[in-house]
Amino acid sequence: MNILLFHSTFGLRPAVHAAAERLRAAGHQVQVPDLFDGRTFETVEEGMAFKEELGSEELLKRAVTAAAPYSDQGLVYAGFSLGGSLAQNLALADEKARGLLLFHGTSDIADNASVDDLPVQLHVADPEAFEPHDWQTAWYLRMRQIGADVEVHRYPGAGHLYTDPDLADYDEEAAERTWQVALGFLETL
Fold first, then answer.
1. Closest to 4 in 3D by CA, of 30, 35, 39
2. Rounded-to-integer distance, Cα 12 and Cα 18, Å
3. 3-state DSSP call for residue 141?
4. Among 20, 139, 18, 130, which Cα is nearest to 81's?
């Protein structure tokens, strides 16, 4: 499977490279674009400030540019938090998308969005600081409404970016369960 994996607002950190290596070890081809031009951040606030400085339009343009060389191959779009938001936007706009794998985040869904049974899997903390249950429920219903085949996996007690071993949110047990389920999902595509 060809996977385009987007980093979080922390930037392209070692955990994202480790995730890509885990996916490659399972037989997938993985591209990991650096949307922040080498910049990484120690806090969410710093990363969000940089994102705001770049602007949402520029960030989306960078994501589209990163996807362009591979999009005719039928990509699985994936991402962590902010990267999940970008992955979702690209997958819903790409009629050749093979799947969408979201870690720690989602995005608004355009009114004109429509997909044909796009397989989607979301992994989130429970509770999720940035996306409360009401948001997740509305997101799930809207994704189903536009034609996505959605699975949501919640991890009680985990922090927001619980798959990153270099962050305070890290939860080894939840991270390992996430990877087992995610790799199983990819095998079905």
1. 30
2. 11
3. helix
4. 130
- Report d(CA 93, CA 77) in Å as an integer: 11
Q: What is the per-residue pLDDT across 118-141, written as a single tens digit (0 to 9) for each?
A: 999 999 999 999 999 999 999 999
The number of angstroms, rounded, from the C-alpha of 76 to the middle of its chain's C-alpha atoms is 10
Residue 101's H or E segment, with its range, is: strand 99-103
- How many residues comprise the chain? 189
* pLDDT above 90 for 16: yes
With bands split at pLDDT 50, 70 and 90, how would you rate the model's confidence at 71?
confident
CA dihedral over 176, 30, 40, 122, signed as positive or negative: negative
Rounded percentage of the chain residues whose pLDDT exceeds 70: 100
Q: How many CB atoms lie within 10 A of CB 133?
A: 12
Cα separation, 23 vs 5, whole angstroms: 10
> For residues 70-96, b (16+ Cβ closer than 10 Å) or e, as one string?
ebeeebbbbbbbbbbbbbbbbbbbbee
Could you tell me which CATH number the domain at 2-187 has?
A: 3.40.50.1820
**Amino acid identity for residue 115 in this structure:** V
pLDDT in tens, 148-164: 999 999 999 999 999 99
Q: Is the pTM of this model over 0.85?
A: yes
> How much is the pLDDT for 85?
97
Angle (nearest 5°) at CA 41 between 40 and 43: 160
